[in-house]
Amino acid sequence: MDELRKRAHELLQSGEVKLVIGYEQGNGNKVRPVFITNPEDTAKLIFDSRCVQNLAVYLSKPEVKTIGKPAIVATLPVLRTIIQLASENQLTDDSAVILGITPDGALRNFSTLEEIETFINQFEIQLEERDKKIIEQINQMTPEERWKFWVDTLTPCFKCYACRAACPMCYCTKCTVEQNQPQWIPVPSHQLGNLEWHFMRAMHMAGRCVDCGACARACPISIPLNLLTKKMMEDMKAQFGEYRIAIKKGNPMSTFKPEDSETFIR
Amino acid sequence: MTIKRLIIQKTSLEKFFDVLIQKGKTIYAPKRKNEKINYEVVNHFSEVCDDYIQTTQSAKSIIFPRTEKLFNYNKGKGNITLEDFDPDQVPEAVIWGVRPCDAAGFIPLTAIFNWDSKDEIYNTRFEKTTIIAFSCTSADESCFCTSVGGNPGNTNGADILLTGMGDKNLFLAEVITEKGEKAVSFAPNLFEEDPGIEKEKYLADLPKQFNQEEIKDKLQAFFESDLWKKQSLRCLGCGACAYVCPTCACFDIQDEVHGKEGKRVRCWDSCGLSLFTLHTSGHNPRSVQSQRWRQRLMHKFSYMPQRLAVYGCTGCGRCSRACPVDMNMLEHLISIQEIQK
Amino acid sequence: MSEFEPKIVAFVCNWCTYAGADLTGTSRIKYASNVRIVRFPCTGRIDYMLLMKAFGEGADGIIVSGCHPNDCHYTSGNFHARRRWIVFRNLCDFMGIDIRRITFSWVSAAEGAKWADLVNSTVATIRELGPYEGYQNISNYLKKEENHG
After folding, report:
1. What is the CA B100 to chain-centroid distance, rounded?
2. Residue A37 pLDDT more than 50?
3. Rounded to a whole number, what is the distance in Å from the CA of B277 to chain C's nearest CA?
4. Is the pLDDT of residue C24 over 50?
5. Cα distance from C140 to chain B (closest Cα, Å)?
6. pTM for the full model?
7. Which pLDDT value is given to residue B51?
8. What is the dihedral of CA A172, A176, A182, A187, to 10 degrees?
């Protein structure tokens, strides 16, 4: 943690960055994102196991970009997000200084995006056992049971879009649900509106989700919506090969292979 | 009317609950589902959850549902038939187990829906609902009702307020309104005269943390300040705070059309969402999150007191608990109070 | 009991399947009339929301059809579509949406008979499955006045 603060202080003092995005102590036992522009304030930075929010979501926000070049504290999920954003042309080498934190909690500086890519590919994205079990359970159900499960699980949703707001891959300035000529996804939070919203979000995350879990954590009603995105990831792996996040490789959904095969097209 | 003080035993309270059900009331009470506690229809006293400080969602959804139909229409055969809102379809309801901050939250909500035009749908639901509140014996770090003119035993907005004594086997029942009297009249023998109970002993201790009058006066001058930018950098711009808030009333109107028939629907909206103020011309007066955050605070603490003579916040703390990035309302208000001119 | 007539919406590409369906007509091949055809320039244009909207508006079944791989009029549209359908179908299955009601196929401009066959067999399948009540129930949202959540 001290190393992190020192490095952040250096970066701000030298003017290499105008802003450091990290974590600070919040109210109660919460941690929350912090935006530091003054070198003295780097003492506020903390890092521990509670720091799990995905800070990369702020890299696409215009309010943050206007401040100037940021440095960002990046745990493994955040590093993966950064590479995914780079592969979608949202970030370049110069967009931000990356203050990487390895899974053991050590500070690691990265100078190029390629370095980050090599680093993250040492760690395969694994589903947690608990999620694997639930997905297995769902797979074992009959289609009717699955329908009932999802309609019941999604009924409490009140369409606050916290999942969308917390997800760094949802950087569209006008979301598909805000399209009203025509209105594709119903706005009100009734069963149809909820189902179609989550279905669409899962489809738009296909091949792009890095499994940071920000969506499920942000949900004020604790709906397990990361099950959908995780299931999509597993599917992508199974259908289209290894789920590697890479800058030069296209997204699975915007590329194709002539040898793609399936058994259901007549 | 003056508040009538009665007492009721816990066993009688359960019987009172059953009497209300027998009288045909739909009772909404806090029910635990997984780790969250929310208001749902309950049929038996044993389903009611009472070991919590605050529910996740407020009780406003019973009177101001998150989705409601305004009318149906059908354009068949050249005629347009309209099926308007039918007040008789609204059931008689009881909200059982709200906290004083939630009961007080209906006051600004009613003010908003009766400000320039009287909203028939809201008013019908409100008139048919009896609010039975329970005082708070404990609070957590997100609560701040005492700073906004409330307290853990406040009677504002409730029809009946129940305060549990000690081990909760005896309750003080304050009957505040005529609706409350009507409810008590269904089973008057369950209640006894109050021997002179001191309610304050049993309430949570919550010191006042800021002065809302002072803040109201300061806010006007702070409109162009850069404090809003600083406070709102981490705000993600979702609608969670507005949706769990007992006083937030913004709504969207959608037409859902299927060929020749359709319905007009009203549903919750949030001023924190980026396209909330987008005009058809493409201009967005609140295009940046700091402007939207400023709107949220000023609406509740400056515009509403000025225009409706009532503050838009009851200190329930739900917004702070629901926010994914800890945009803590209490913290921000205290820091505004501390700014020296 | 009145015979249930399925409502099928077909999303087809202009250059192959639409032409193929036209050939079915000019060849005077009789086939079930339950299909409403929606014409697209290419299957690559078909968005998932369109398919869901079809169910939401009362369709009991869906047919999606285009050019054979390597024969796309726009070279690679159907390859992109194929990927999308694989993912879409998996997600539908995971969420319990009845995938027996969605038929995907490649029908070329010369396959008039195949089109008739496809429609007839799809209609027969859907007739057996019955109306898509599950989806239509949630689409008739607000049958009662409100949703308290």
Report:
1. 10
2. yes
3. 25
4. yes
5. 10
6. 0.92
7. 83
8. -120
